[in-house]
Design goal:
The chain is mainly beta. It contains one helix and eleven strands. The protein has a five-stranded antiparallel sheet. Strands 3-2-5-6 form a four-stranded antiparallel sheet, with no helix packed on it. Strands 1-4 form a two-stranded antiparallel sheet. It is elongated, with a radius of gyration of 18 Å. The termini are far apart.
């Protein structure tokens, strides 16, 4: 399961843990066969997923509960979270460029021009950490892995890229 910092993780209304990081994985178990309702509840939103765990076919089943930092929360679940599925393009962490907000689409356009990237190679998760600032997380369209995180200040026309080494955003010239 994937979560945000400080969110409560529950199964059938029994608290299992509280997340300590923004992007955290938690492995519940062992669990007895049965029906479970997994919930993620925190200040940035909530998500819920009903799962039936019945026998060997469900051992190691992955359940994704994702939220975004926008003002509305979303449930993002994946029924078949398997790396070996033939039709892997059915679910992506982010959204296609064509369905992003105007501010997010502008941020992606600036990023693509300054970084010489093909915007169609990624899916995106958008958020707005401050007024006039849009944060964009780029996920590889094929592997669904996080590639980079950018922030675009539309008022000052400044693009910054997150640097893992320094844990800071650095302006892209």
């Amino acid at each position: 399961m994937h979560f945000r910092r400080g969110a409560a993780i529950t199964a059938n209304d029994v608290k299992l843990s509280t997340t300590k990081y923004d992007h955290e994985s938690y492995q519940a178990g062992p669990l007895m066969p049965g029906s479970y309702t997994f919930k993620l509840e925190g200040s940035t939103g909530s998500a819920k997923k009903q799962v039936d765990l019945m026998g060997q076919a469900n051992v190691g089943k992955a359940v994704k509960l994702l939220t975004t930092t926008t003002t509305t929360s979303t449930d993002d679940v994946d029924e078949n979270d398997s790396d070996d599925t033939e039709d892997s393009n059915q679910h992506h962490t982010g959204k296609a460029l064509s369905v992003l907000s105007k501010d997010a689409a502008t941020a992606v356009s600036v990023m693509a021009n300054k970084e010489d990237r093909d915007a169609d190679d990624y899916t995106y998760v958008e958020s707005q950490p401050w007024d006039n600032v849009t944060e964009i997380k780029l996920y590889d369209e094929d592997s669904d892995k996080l590639v980079d995180t950018y922030r675009y200040d539309k008022k000052n026309d400044i693009l910054a890229k997150y640097d893992d080494a320094t844990s800071k955003f650095v302006e892209v010239k």
